[in-house]
Prior knowledge:
There is one protein chain. The protein is an all-beta fold. Among the domains are: 49-179, Jelly Rolls, CATH 2.60.120; 211-219 and 227-362, Jelly Rolls, CATH 2.60.120.380; 369-516, Sandwich (Jelly Rolls). The strands form twelve sheets. Strands 1-4-9-6-7-3 form a six-stranded mixed beta sheet, with no helix packed on it. The chain has a five-stranded mixed beta sheet with strand order 15-17-22-19-20. A hairpin with a 4-residue loop joins strand 35 and strand 36. The longest helix has 8 residues, at 593-600.
Amino acid sequence: MQRSFRNSVLPRTLPLALLLAIGCSSNDSSPDAAVTPDAEGLGICTPATVLSTYPANFRGDVLGAGADLDVGEGVCDVQFSHFEQAGEDQVIELTNLTPEANYAVILQAAADLSFYVVTDCTGSDPVAGECLVFSDAELGGTPEIADFTAPASGSVFVIVDHFVAEPPLENGSFTLTVVEPECQEDVDCSGSPATPYCSDFQCVACENSFQCETAEAPVCDATSKSCVPGSDTCTPDDTSESADDGPAGARVLAAPTATTPTVVTANICSDPLTEIDFYSITLAEGTNTAFALNWTEVGGDPDLDLVLFGADGNVIDSSFNGTPEVLVVENISAGTYYLAVSKFEPTMTPIAASVPYTLSASVPECVTSFDCPTAGEPICSPGRTCIANANTCSGDTDDAISQNDGPAAATVIAINGPPVNAAICNTPSVERDFFRVTVGNGQSITLNLAYADNAAADLDVAIFNSAGVRMGFALWSNPEVIELSFLPAGNYFIEVEYFGAGVAVAHPYTITATAAAGGCTADSQCDDVFKTQLFRGDCNVATGACVPIVGNGSRPQDASCDSDNDCASGLCSYRIFQESAAQSVCTVSCNVSSECVTAHGAGFSCTVPFSTNFCRPSCGDNLDCGANPSSEMLDAGEPWDYLTCNAGACELDN
């Protein structure tokens, strides 16, 4: 079981039409993985073809190719990640190369293939000095692209391979292209106004549709990399076709107001599979906007998708599996944004019959349930309106409990009072139980949620302040216990959720809250309690309460921080549920720990391997590294799976 705390995981990759619009590969093959290596020298290195003029193209198939070579990690001069190669290989010989000239290899395939370029191919595995480059995308997918410098002999061998033995590989076909690079990056094409972008080492007119500037030719053709007219084959289609197949011809949406949403109707089909309807909308600074895509079923079970892009073509948000598809953007920067509507075809068969749909933009009534002030409508729905509780849990008979799905209807828990008995299910998905406690300045509280063990039941608990800011949470234990220390005075809201597959039968539980008086006297005390409490790094001595550091993105390197947005660099070394949180400072990204010593001085290490590695005070044990809330592989005696401290550096894996 996995939970994503900070980042949502998309239920599937972007639809083909949208991938092409932003210049990504449409392939969604399995990721590379380490498997049992090839036995050495099992195949004979016999080329399937010889290419001698460039650009050159070859269509091949690794299935039944016969050769079975394996290049070890670190053998190649240039290595773009490395995975074992257990499958059969196809060998392509390149001759008549100009010594010391640069050449590029582009591999397109349905499966997740790799390739490497060697100077000698005698039937035995390549050794150091014989392999020029190895290319295998770390997350799978094509194209695989790499370049190499031709040796003095003027000939090399390209070995196309696969990371698993056959079966299970069902489709081993591929296209291999070899070119003399015209460019390495866009600046190399600056002298060609008609082809200003560098794609696959060639200067082209466009890499994606956001680089096409006219409504007459708003689509970047994936093959020719040129801007072309859109298509108009849907039946029926809209008057805005075919200009709206690209951002340059997008249909303009008026920005909604608090009282007036913007609503448009249109039709879309999947013929061709790249068909898209684009819309543009200009939003003011700090805007909250809800977008909803709804449609009428016309034959079968159509599935429409909605994606929001920035003006630069980067994806901001997407919705693929809802009915309706809903996107909500909060506090957005001023600018023009683009919405893309497409029809998903799981069989990849174009269908010309169009699906009527409605696309709306509105100012959301709420973003979270903390925005819903009325006890009768305490829930913020997926469509971002305040609604009443559906109350469909079977066995949740206590009205005082069953109606408390939002903070406005929270049930009061007496501090140090008797346990409160309640029950919860998760049908509908917005089902929650909210409770409220009131504390004084500097008080510390302990919340205990206990329930009967059940193979299916998994209850989670979180605590928020009155503004809806999360203060702490617990996910994996029974009982779930949250400890918060040195709180500012006020009301705090406790949210109980049933995690897992949908159930309509309520599961009983008890909840208690206890408190202790006291107060902090120094910032260093604000991390004394850390395992279920989110760090607040500033001790207000006058009230005895720990409060968040107010950095507003201005704190310099080495200044204390408790969140990334405190720092001018956008990076704070604090990570969730870290024991040494009070040592957290504004920091910088890094590749190796020596860079951290240069930036901060002795006692700093570089994390490995995060999506962005950053410098942080060297850890003494795992608790210094913080937790991975998404993992259920808990450390012994701890509420979390903690990251691993290895020689002062924090690592993701245990």
